[in-house]
Write a structure and sequence with these properties.
- There is one protein chain.
- Helices cover about 40% and strands about 20% of the residues.
- Helix 6 links the parallel strand 3 and strand 4.
- About 35% of the residues are buried.
- By secondary structure, it is α/β, with parallel strands linked by helices.
- The chain has two domains: about 55 residues, no CATH class; about 190 residues, Vaccinia Virus protein VP39 (Rossmann fold).
- It has eleven helices and nine strands.
Length: about 270
C-alpha cells in the first residue's frame, strides 16, 4: 500500500488535507513522512489508522499526540484537542506578563494542560495552578507536564464550585478556555469534533454560550488581585457579551483580540 493509495482512500471519504494526514501517520510509524516501503507490521499499523480515520475519529486521537505552542502534547479520547486559536490566548497572557516576575497563574478548565504548560514553559519562575473537572483530561495534563518536566499544580475539581474557589487568593492571572458552544452549535459539529468530550464544548444553559463566563467571572474574581488579568478564549460571536460581562464585574482595560481569520477569539481585562 503506497502513499498515493492511502491518500486516495481518505479523499474518497471526504477527508480534506488527505496528503498531510497520511504524512503524519507515516511519520509516526516509520519516521519518514514520505515512506514508500513498509514492513508487514507497518502496513497493518497504517491500515488500522486509516480505518479509524475514515470512521470519523480525529487524526490527533489516532496519533495520540498533537503540537501546541511548539510542544508535543499527548491527547486521546476524553480530552479536548489543542487548537491553534488557543495559542492566541497564551500569547495574550505572555504579552501582558512581559517585565513581570514571580507571577501566580491559575488556569481553569485546563483540559490537556496546554495553556498552563505553555505559560510555565515561557514563565519558568511563575507558580502555575490548573483545574479541571475531568479525571481523563487531567491524566493527559499530568502526563504532558511530566513529559516536559514542567511543575504545574493540578486539581481535580468543578470550577463552578464556590467553596472550592474560596481557597484561592491573590492570583496575578486567571486564564480559561471554558466550554462555550451553544446548543445549536452542538448540533452542527463536524464528525471529528463529536468524538471530543461534550463537557469541554457545550457552554451550558445560556442560549449564547456564555454560561461559564458568567459563572467563572462571578465565582473567581475574588481570587484575582487588583490589577490582575482575567483572560478568556471566546467564541467568535461572544466578544461584546463577554466584554460587557467583565465590565459589569469591575474589570477595565478590556480588549477583544481576533484570531488568524480576523474573528473575535480572546477577551481580556484587568480587575479594578
Amino acid at each position: 500500500m503506497v502513499r498515493s493509495e492511502l491518500i486516495k482512500i481518505l479523499e474518497e471519504h471526504g477527508i480534506p488535507d488527505a496528503g498531510f494526514e497520511v504524512s503524519c501517520m507515516l511519520e509516526q510509524i516509520t519516521g519518514d513522512r514520505y515512506a514508500v516501503s513498509l514492513s508487514a507490521e507497518q502496513k497493518q499499523q497504517i491500515s488500522a489508522m486509516i480505518q479509524r480515520r475514515i470512521s470519523g475519529e480525529p487524526l490527533q486521537y489516532i496519533l495520540g499526540e498533537w503540537e501546541f505552542y511548539g510542544m508535543r502534547l499527548f491527547v486521546g479520547k476524553g480530552v479536548l484537542i489543542p487548537r491553534p486559536d488557543t495559542e492566541i490566548l497564551a500569547d495574550t497572557v505572555l504579552n501582558w506578563s512581559k517585565g513581570k516576575s514571580g507571577l501566580k497563574i491559575l488556569d481553569l478548565c485546563t483540559g490537556s494542560g496546554c495553556i498552563a504548560l505553555a505559560l510555565k514553559r515561557h514563565l519558568p519562575d511563575a507558580a502555575v495552578t490548573a483545574v479541571d473537572i475531568s479525571e481523563k483530561a487531567l491524566a493527559y495534563a499530568r502526563k504532558n507536564a511530566e513529559y516536559h518536566q514542567l511543575a504545574v499544580d493540578f486539581h481535580h475539581a468543578d470550577v463552578l464550585d464556590k467553596n472550592f474557589a474560596k481557597q484561592f487568593q491573590a492570583y496575578d492571572i486567571i486564564v480559561s478556555n471554558p466550554p462555550y458552544l451553544t446548543g445549536q452549535e452542538m448540533t452542527e459539529l463536524q464528525t471529528e469534533v463529536k468524538h471530543e468530550p461534550a463537557i469541554a464544548l457545550f457552554g451550558g444553559s445560556a442560549e449564547d454560550g456564555t454560561y461559564f463566563y458568567r459563572k467563572i467571572t462571578s465565582i473567581w474574581k475574588d481570587a484575582l488581585r487588583p490589577g490582575g488579568l482575567l483572560a478568556y478564549e471566546i467564541g467568535w460571536k461572544q466578544g461584546l457579551r463577554v466584554s460587557e460581562l467583565m465590565q459589569s464585574n469591575a474589570f477595565d482595560k478590556i480588549q477583544v483580540i481576533q484570531d488568524y481569520e480576523h474573528r473575535d477569539r480572546v477577551a481580556a481585562g484587568e480587575k479594578i
